[in-house]
Amino acid sequence: MTESSKKILFIGAGRMAQAIIAGLNKTDMTIVASNNGDAKRLEEVEQKFGVMTTDSWKEEIEDADMIVLAMPPEAHESVLKEVELFVKDQFIVTLAAGIDPTYLEAKLPEGTPVAWVMPNPAASLGKSVSLYTLGKHVGEHHEKMLEALLDSIGSSEKVTEDQVHALTPITGSGSAFIYRMANSLVTSAIDTGVTEEKARKLVADMIHGAAAMLQTGEPPKKLIDQVASPGGVTAAGLEVMDEGQFDQMMQDVVTACHIRARNN
Ligand SMILES: NC(=O)c1ccc[n+]([C@@H]2O[C@H](COP(=O)([O-])OP(=O)(O)OC[C@H]3O[C@@H](n4cnc5c(N)ncnc54)[C@H](OP(=O)(O)O)[C@@H]3O)[C@@H](O)[C@H]2O)c1
């Protein structure tokens, strides 16, 4: 069996599962999607992606090569209790915040290969930057399967379990913080008299360009200096950010995410 003819079972068929299915669907992996009983959602998934769906994942688990847990963190405990009964050598991958390999290995039979992937919503455009980390029993063939999944939704970085926890507020939640800033800039643009559509396009194009500049590898500080000449217009705006302790606020934002993740 080639890597591309593996069978992947999704438990959870929401936004993130669908983003991954959209990418994986371009490979010839066999995809089966299931969920918590929302029949309408499964029907939509079947129609949109032409993949198999089932209202009983237990019937599809036995010959699955990889099982993707694409459901909320709080659903994991009860679902893993059931998955545990069926696991032989299936590779179990979770997408859920806080559900690390240490947790999965403790809930599953000794020797089960597990991984934790932290994608972001840009997965739906094939532009996620995903963090991932592997459990103790993952072999080369498992990693290859996972790479196919990760490649289908964007770029990825293999890091340690602790780093996935630590970096989730940045690569996982980070886009929301950019959108928050974008929303303010769109409002300011509309105030100048342009249409909302135009305002959104201007801001999106500006962020796209800024991201492209960052991707050249230049440090952000140097890029700031390129835009802001001393005493100039942009410098006046940056001074307001300094007065509002923007950098401290962003650190507090990341810390708040860590605290919430720990308490969930
Ligand atoms: N969305 C993101 O940007 C993002 C980013 C990184 C990580 N994640 C993680 O990805 C996971 C899924 O997120 P999502 O955004 O796709 O959520 P979502 O759109 O709310 O979908 C959740 C899915 O989980 C299913 N589900 C819930 N409880 C279940 C259970 N007990 N058994 C089987 N299926 C169950 C739901 O079933 P029904 O269809 O029957 O309701 C639904 O299909 C979460 O753990 C989240 O932390 C999401």
From TrEMBL:
Keyword annotations of the record: Amino-acid biosynthesis, Cytoplasm, NADP, Oxidoreductase, Proline biosynthesis
Localization, UniProt: Cytoplasm
Record-stated family: Belongs to the pyrroline-5-carboxylate reductase family.
Descriptive protein name: Pyrroline-5-carboxylate reductase
A single cellular component GO annotation: cytoplasm
Main function: Catalyzes the reduction of 1-pyrroline-5-carboxylate (PCA) to L-proline.
GO molecular function: pyrroline-5-carboxylate reductase activity
